[in-house]
Amino acid sequence: MSVIKVFHRALEYYQEIMSLTTNQIAEFDVAIPSRIHLAIKYESLQIAQIEAIFDSFLKDLDERNLIEDYADIKDWLDDSVYKERLDGRQIRDKITTALGLALAESRSGGGQKLNKRHLKRAFGNINNFKRDFNTQMQRYTDDQEKTIHVPSSPIFLDSLAASD
What we know:
mainly alpha
């Protein structure tokens, strides 16, 4: 039995409140929306909100003396990052990755605190992955469309009619 069928069956008879979060609403199976009773849509964050989330994470790290040059990071974020329209999870993930890079360097004798270079590496790495992932997904989608595409040429249609 497919995962979708199992999920549908469980959802059909579920008597409690179930919370489902996704930013992939276009990927829903057609049977799911009819079983949703309350949907809450969160709008994309505004630049001021994105800035506030970054500030919250970075101020905490700065207070713990884990940032090398807070002003330099802030300038780079102002110039390059805020316009990317990230969500809170993406912001957290990128800062966590950059902090991990800084900590790895400090353990190998580099003595590094979080700096702009770490953030740039984290952003670049994640952005490259997303670009590669999207390219692969597009290839997959294109291949699937080619596989299910039925030719409409007269020769093909005549051969179908002759086989009846």
